[in-house]
Design goal:
The chain is 30% helix and 26% strand. With 349 residues, the chain is of the alpha/beta class.
Length: 349
């Protein structure tokens, strides 16, 4: 069965979608609309059909799926217009700016009978899938702490992401990914507490970074961090378990794992520091640990659209549920609340 998609918005991310869709059987792009003349001209230079307006796009009877890839503040209005025009909708992340907006979008989906989903593409990131596999296999023993972060040193990109009215800032831009991943690591486990701080190093209008401590009901604490003024990046992932530690330095790097072998270390050689000796922080002997590196889990991002098509054909359930998107939206709101009120926020009782 063939499906036809049209793009509302044709910025850099929509261009990425276009290139991806060219490699997917059964899905084609009918055309695009963008409010910026230069983006429309760029589309024409690639021999992509350009609609006369958003209304023209929505009137195309050959289109059964609309990608909303505009600035964040207009996701809701375009998605609802598209569903009311009989189209199914894929919204770029974040799906919208507030829980109330998302409820209205879900109500429109239920009212029109149209499918609505959000492009949480980083569920397919190899580093995330590698950490999830490691936890599922229990190779580190009982997990007590995780750290997930992305660091850059160039500030916020010089576009609408710097502007509050358009839904800019790093919580909505990158936090939506990392917080979604965090919630997926412990399915069925309540997130009890959120404590967060924001940074405004390069931009006073929106957050250019944040740190959030997430306390889960299973006793795990997870640090989620985004920074845009970090000239020395910390590891992408750092996972601490009772029996071992794992680390992924950056995207595309191998997973480094160090596990205890169960050897009883009786003869610890103290570490000599300028201020004295310490046995507590002395390194383990080589015969008491096992170190290994393994490649990241492979993935195929085409599965996102393949799943969307399977949902439309009634063959599969959506891999990205709207209640999951709503939970992430509430979590982002809790991050903002915690930072503003300078306190721990109770999230799920």
């Amino acid at each position: 069965m063939k499906h036809t998609l049209a793009m509302a918005g044709f910025g850099g991310m929509a261009g990425w979608h276009y290139d991806l869709i060219e490699r997917i059987d059964g899905l084609t792009v009918a055309g695009i609309w963008d409010v910026k003349p230069e983006r429309r001209e760029y589309a024409r230079s690639r021999n992509i059909h350009v609609y006369q307006s958003l209304e023209d796009l929505l009137a195309d009877q050959s289109v059964d799926l609309v990608l909303v890839a505009t600035p964040n503040d207009v996701h809701k209005s375009i998605a609802i217009q598209a569903m009311e025009a009989g189209k199914n909708v894929v919204s770029e992340k974040p799906v919208t700016l507030s829980s109330q907006d998302l409820r209205e979008m879900i109500q429109a989906s239920e009212r029109t009978g149209r499918f609505l989903t959000v492009h949480q593409n980083r569920r397919w990131d190899e580093d995330f899938l590698s950490v999830k596999k490691l936890l599922d296999e229990g190779r580190l023993g009982e997990i007590f702490r995780l750290e997930s972060r992305v660091h850059g040193s160039r500030g916020i990109p010089g576009d609408w992401r710097q502007e509050k009215e358009h839904g800019g800032g790093m919580v909505l831009d990158w936090g939506v990914h990392l917080l979604d991943q965090a919630l997926l690591l412990f399915p069925g486990v309540k997130l009890e507490t959120v404590y967060a701080t924001l940074t405004n190093v390069t931009n006073q209008l929106v957050d250019d970074g944040f740190t959030a401590d997430l306390g889960f009901a299973n006793g795990v604490h997870m640090l989620v961090e985004v920074g845009t003024s970090n000239f020395i990046s910390l590891p992408r992932w750092y996972v601490l378990g009772r029996d071992g530690t794992a680390m992924i330095e950056d995207w595309g790097r191998e997973v480094r794992i160090v596990r205890a072998l169960g050897t009883d270390e009786k003869d610890v050689v103290p570490v000599r520091t300028a201020a004295g000796l310490t046995k507590t922080m002395a390194p383990r002997r080589d015969d008491s640990i096992h170190s290994e590196e393994e490649p990241e889990v492979s993935s195929d991002i085409r599965e996102f659209y393949q799943n969307v098509m399977a949902v439309l054909e009634g063959r599969e359930e959506s891999r990205i549920k709207l209640d999951e998107a709503a939970r992430v939206m509430r979590l982002m709101e809790a991050v903002f609340q915690s930072a503003e009120e300078k306190r721990v926020v109770r999230f799920e009782e």
